[in-house]
């Protein structure tokens, strides 16, 4: 027993002797190390966490910043630096740093020093490696709002050869899909979304493409007379239609779009300068008109997307141009500087914004001053030689980013409004009937009492329903008229707008006798209704309801055409701004009216017949032309009497019906790719020949 316990003690002793005591020490260190690393880990974790938080706070800030910008309606500015082209020295770049949040640092490496660095901040900066897809992805959310009834304008600005056309359209017409620019991608995207919303919305998409070359607006999608000068609506249109006479082409597929854009691309004025082999010598404006109908509520949405590829800003000396090129460059620079003036006036919130100083600013007026969402791509050439242009481009862009346009508004037209419009139309009809009775009674009186007793018609119709002054030049009453021809015209113009009745001048009788005429009672209730409800007089194609593409949806009453096509008189800056001018412009374009005449069975079954009796009646209507598409009596322009049309010739040129034929061209809307078809365009290019005349597929359905 004793010996066994001795053995255990021996074992224990030997174990203790052989025990590696430093293990213990080491373990202590191990624990300490572990503890330390845990502590450090926790610390690091905290740092990582803080960094994460910082990023999410930054992202949140950016989001909030963008929302504030959206609310203020700031023009968004995206900057894109194009890569060096073969032959350019890649080592000498002016772009030093591109930040994640839109910072851009530029410098002049040949002049080192503190003052040579300039930092700019925009909504986004795309570096040289940015792909077309990346650029589009950042633009897409904005573009998509067009389908919700917003007007959007995207324009590319920058010196010659900086990549404006590349960003907007792509490198060339035969670009691969991955090289497609914003234009094609935007339309493709719109089609996809329209398709995906098929169950709840139906969309119609139309395309116009014009260029402004040497201060003249030309249609790029017409096979006739692409050299014809077009007029511009000189005030903001709610539907963004700036050039009403440019041909409108309905598109239903990306193939249609490709075909049209290629035509436009080929028709565009280009030339070579020392700075760019194939420089665009004009501003090109592609406008996409979208009209959506909510199948459930019947609400109509109208959105427009202007995609503008500006001509390159350039120093005339650097581009080494002479002769015609020099003239082009001067026009380009002049219009760009007019754009700068407009931007400057907007940034300053000036009372007067000089839109009328150039065609470019007139066309873009609705996007630069209205409730549109506007984005500018500022294109940069990173080349050292371009440093001074880069700097001035960036300064311009900085100014643009400070412009607040006000929150964008969607162009929605609910069922309520349309129902009210219908009611107004019925009221108008009732008033018109009453008016006819009054007129007959007066006629009776004239016949009974002789010419001397003729007095001016006190009927409210003159002012309420757009009836023209009825005294013909031969009328005996004319001699006794206290009003001049001009006054008569003015009053008949006023009469063309029922909804503006509230703001109309008193009737002639009211003026003469100082009492409130029968119309006075009607004035108040019209408040808030769409303007431009007009009605032509019986016997002058009465009851024609002319819908001009939704004009007047938000009650803009002073549409004007500032410049009239084909040798017409330019109305200049002092154009008479009455709505009558818009009506006249329409009236001088017979095919346009005929095309836009809507058969309003509610008012008269004769309307379509009356419309067909106009000079454009011979034009073929498309098989799918549907009156039922136009629900409600919406926007109408009056058809003036021959007398009025005549008297107005001096102020507005007449459009030849033949010249208007181009407006009715449209590419067929089948989704199958189509072969070019020859047309009658004698001197049209091969590209334009592929536009087919398929009858009246026009903008009227928008
Ligand atoms: N992001 C880019 N990636 C690759 N090449 C580009 C890029 N941007 C521009 N380029 C090329 O640079 C050249 C000039 O571009 P582009 O013609 O688009 O310039 P621009 O600003 O439209 O010129 P201009 O004002 O004279 O019409 C073209 O050869 C184009 O393919």
Automatic annotation (TrEMBL):
Coiled coil: none
Start and end residues of each Kinesin motor domain: 74-403
Listed GO MF terms: ATP binding; microtubule binding; microtubule motor activity
Membrane keyword on record: yes
Annotated keywords: ATP-binding, Coiled coil, Membrane, Microtubule, Motor protein, Nucleotide-binding, Transmembrane, Transmembrane helix
UniProt cross-references to Pfam families, sorted A to Z: Kinesin (PF00225)
UniProt-listed SUPFAM superfamilies: P-loop containing nucleoside triphosphate hydrolases
TM helices/strands, residue ranges: 6-25
GO (cellular component) term, any one: microtubule
Compositionally biased intervals (Low complexity): 668-688
Region Disordered, residue ranges: 550-702
Binding site for ATP: 158-165
Extent of Polar residues compositional bias: 572-607
GO biological process, one term: microtubule-based movement
Cross-referenced InterPro entries: Kinesin-like_fam, Kinesin_motor_dom, Kinesin_motor_dom_sf, P-loop_NTPase
Keyword Transcription regulation tagged: no
Superkingdom assignment: Eukaryota
Similarity annotation: Belongs to the TRAFAC class myosin-kinesin ATPase superfamily. Kinesin family. KIN-14 subfamily.
Protein name, UniProt field: Kinesin motor domain-containing protein
Record organism: Linum tenue
